[in-house]
Design brief:
Number of strands: 5
Shape: globular
Order of helices and strands: EHHEHHEEE
Helix content: 10-25%
Number of helices: 4
Strand order of the largest sheet: 1-5-4-3-2
Structural class: alpha+beta
Strand content: 15-25%
Largest sheet: 5 strands, mixed
Distance between the termini: 79 Å
Length: about 140
Amino acid sequence: MNIKKNKINKLCTNCFEPIFLKFNFSYVVYDEEFDDVHKIKFMDRIMELSSSPYNVIMNRGKKISFELIDIGELNIKKEIPEAFKQRFDSKRYNNKWAIIRIYPNNNPIIARVIGVLINKIFYIFFIDIGGKLYKHD
């Protein structure tokens, strides 16, 4: 007597492990001064940060990569969006802001993109043109 065993294919829910940085704009609040010139430079920075593997990007200096700062340490004048807080626990992003510079040497102005990193996805919350959201050293 031959008995066939039915095999059930299980979908792998954690199989995809991206090696490149991704950007999420679902929660972004744009600065009034975020004009076309800044938008072009921002797109250049996104393309630059997307062109190398995540591990390579994260091993670069803060002027050309990410600066990770404890949320309580920075005193940003805005809060993480409520919709995001309801979806993600702060442990998922180590309770740290992730910040990139639109202009790596602050030239012509201080301009930052502020959000958090979760699983190689940069969730963008604020685009700060002129450095108004927190004190810069």
